[in-house]
Write a structure and sequence with these properties.
Blueprint (H helix, E strand, L loop, with lengths): L1 H17 L6 H20 L5 H26 L9
Helix pairs in contact: 1-3, 2-3
């Protein structure tokens, strides 16, 4: 569970670097979660325990919220101007 939550934090930092728009963070996070879910289902069958679903849904929520926060902070940064 710790690795999944840590991966969501790393994913939110990557969202801020790659996506750069806070409006798109939900779409990218949910898409990544669904790709992960289908890969896990294909490889090992449908997850049978509820804790898997709870941990991954919480990690996705955490990734969306922290990613949107980082993206909005990056959007609000000043644009550097060339000073001559």
């Amino acid at each position: 569970t710790f690795a999944v939550l840590l991966a969501s934090l790393v994913g939110s930092v990557l969202l801020a670097i790659i996506v750069e728009k806070s409006k798109k963070c939900l779409d990218f996070s949910f898409t990544l979660f669904m790709i992960h879910f289908f890969n896990c289902t294909f490889y090992n069958g449908l997850p049978a325990t509820w804790d898997w679903y709870i941990v991954h849904i919480l990690a996705t929520i955490m990734m969306v919220l922290f990613g949107e926060y980082l993206c909005s902070r990056r959007e609000l940064d000043d644009i550097p101007l060339l000073q001559l």
